[in-house]
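Hi there,

I know you've been waiting on this one. I reran it after we fixed the sequence typo, so this is the corrected version. Both the input and the resulting structure follow.
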Amino acid sequence: MLQPRKTRKPAAPRPPSGGPAPLAYPLTERDGESEILAFLAERPVHTVVMSGLIRDNGLESPFNRGSFYACRGESGALEGVALVGHAVLIEARTLGALKAFAELAQAHRDAHMILGEQEAVAGFWDYYAETGQPPRLFCRELLYEQQWPVVAAPAVAGLRPARLADLPLVLPVHAQMAEAESGVNPLEADPHGFRLRCARRIESGRVWVLVEDGGLVFKADIASDTPECVYVEGVYVAPESRRRRYGLRCLTQLGRHLLGRTKIVSALVNEENRPAQALFQKAGYKLRGHYDTIFLRKGRR
């Protein structure tokens, strides 16, 4: 288990001296999506998950597994957008907004994790930690990006969007990967909800697989899809196929397909997962940033 790295807070301006602190408030469908999406699109790679959820589900939906909030300063201008729920995701442009979101999140006692850029998470944690949920596990991830041109690799004829008939193959693999990362197996913690979410993602064409002789060889999930950036997660290569370059060929082919409709394909890879890092680098992904994930214990301290 990693310990939180000592990093400085984000280099964002503080609220004017003596001025009122920015206010965080819940977003509803009445607020409209256009202003929020435009704000998030200013940093599309770092906000791709929130943008994707809003595009897929709107501002209010149980599929978001949480509630969206906005923070405005004295002038009325947006200073931040956050999702608080199963995951806590923050896009704060000022320290005032970061503090407001942290105080808001302290009242939520059922979060699974906090995820974001290292400096932002460090600043958020300074405000949140005293009365928020206690930490269970600290992880670090590397942010990789792929853009044109994409490295050449032989095509894989069987790579395709998954079908619902593939769910029995995809479900246990995805659960095992989640448990390896977070220490919690979603098939045990929330079997019905996890199955529904996986099935919905397959029905949306967001899971790509290579199946041979009834076995899963390769899998990748498109977790978030926007015109500016597509975020890929859950990349899996069967152990017996890892020396046959299936992973590189499938990941490269998928990247070519996705870059036909977006500008950037991004992925987070655990800092300790050297084989996955090597795979993404061979596929032409470049290291662009560092992220922290804090997995939380539910309930109060």
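Quick highlight: The two ends are 20 Å apart (CA to CA).

Best,
R. S.
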